[in-house]
Amino acid sequence: MPKLNQNQFNYRMSNLSDRLKSAGNLKNLGYLPRWIVLFMDSAVVIGSAILVFVMLWSMGLDLFSVEYVMYVVPGYLVLNLIFFWIYRTYSGIIRHSSFIDAIKLGFATFSTLAVLILINYSAMYVLGAKIFMNTGLLINFVISFATLFVYRILVKQTFEKYLSESNKEDLMRGLIYGSDENAIAVANALIAERPRRFKVVGFVDKNKHNTAKRILNLPIINLRKRVPVLMRSVEAEVLIIADKNLTKEEKLTIVDECLEFNYKVFTVPLISDWEDQKNIAKKVKTFEIQDLLERKPIVLDNQSISNQLNGKVILVTGAAGSIGSEIVRQIIAFEPHTVLMLDQAETPLHHLSLEIEKVIKNVKVVSIISDVRNREAMDHVFKEYRPQVVFHAAAYKHVPLMERNPAQAIFVNVKGTKNVADLACEYKCESFVMVSTDKAVNPSNVMGASKRIAEKYVQGLHHKYRLQGTDCGATKFITTRFGNVLGSNGSVVPLFTEQIANGGPITITHPDIIRYFMTIPEACQLVLEAGAMGNGGEVYIFDMGKPVKIIDLAHKMIRLAGFTPEVEIKVKIVGLRPGEKLYEELLNDTATTLPTHHEKIMIAQEDMEDFVALNTAVNELITEAECYTINEIVVKMKTIVPEFKSMNSDFVLLDK
After folding, report:
1. Closest CA to 449 of 255, 281, 643, 275
2. In a domain? residue 392
3. Is this structure's pTM higher than 0.90?
4. Do 358 and 339 belong together in one domain?
5. Within 13 Å and on the Cβ side, how many CA atoms surround 599?
């Protein structure tokens, strides 16, 4: 054996010391090796056999013939070991024993019993006498199985009690809303979760069918009063909504009631029968603001969308952005031939490429680094790939930044749209779908005005070629217009989330400011639907639901995070930003709407302008932008969009 030097000796002694300290604390105790579990199980079955032997011997009976003792004892042990190995009873972690472990033990001990009885009857025919007493074997089976299972339960309960006692001050007292199978599965998962987050204190039954009954030895509370009152009665801190039969309206009412009294609310999706407890526990998460604003699911005309996209070459500009990336994800489900993801942002596009590669099957996906402002570069893309459908989501969208940099708003939002739209027409694309914004309606800022000019150009281009009856009339030019998107880059939700995480304050520009909101998937679903239903030249507007007061949104997000507004997290009013309105609109003052077959999509009827004059004005605007003459750029924009009236901006003077 090689001799240890002093450093090696010190290291090993230190390591041994750490292990001994760890073993002294159950929380840090590792899992027992399998051979130790197998040794303990063997000791249990031997002990059970001795107990049965002594018990029968005291009554003057023999468990087995004494002359076969040299064969019976080792044979009995080997037989048990064989079935322990076959059913792998020793592979489970004792402290996490479950019903499956009981089944394994039952099969192992019953198999031993069956083989011993078979040997017994075989011996009777061969030797003329039985080796074992059949009744004794049956008693031994019952005692050995019970002992093996009970000692596992005792270990499990000891660990659970010790661990729950050791960290019970850190656990949140949780009341589970629901008493059906879904709720019970959630409760079991939370009790078994390690490390634990919740101490489950009871269930809420809204149907009042389970009076005076208990589940998992926990009380079932009938919903006779408001949920916050019930929570106070059992000293619960959080509510976990696990009732799969709740409507969205009922769920939102419960959440609002709890938030009003500063109770945290968690939710969990419908549990599959095949999910294990670890996966269930992971799905128990806090409500997010998207959950509070969610509306009825959008029903899409999948056949119509599939006809537009299936087997086609699709180009998505601005593909690395919030809207563009979601459009890509949803398009892939309709199995186009090729998806061209185009963006100038290298890193986000790379991340999207890696994500898409994991889910694509029969779709070719091409990532293209390019800039919609560069017509030559875009022409190369159209020439090489010949896209049939274009979703144009590339845009500069941040109002304060564009107010300070109007030339850049023109380059991207106007010139970029013009480049892509002209090329879509030149290469005879089937359709061109532009993603616009409600800020283009009666614009009060440079960003909104630039998007309105882009809308006008796209509409005008469609009507020009349709009236001329030229080949370019084959391209359908469609505009989609919607409001703020929850969770998109730069929107208020990520900003508020970050501010809450930093301890506040949350900054709001005005206490009365309101906005329409949609989730990103909702918005993109409606973009695909509008693109499929459009005949060309339409401006589609979406039903955005009820407008949301931003200060109310901030208060809800603070409560969802477990804080009290104006106590732990302050709300600070900082004043309207340049170009910002108190509220957004979806229609111009002179526009009207027409319904479509989809209840959430309408067509805005707006006055058409002479395209030749518009095209000349747009070219002049782009030329002006290239000179970076800020005031002249804005004046030209106001000429093209007469309803553009600046607000809270230095450009207000240009309206007079």
Report:
1. 643
2. yes
3. no
4. yes
5. 5
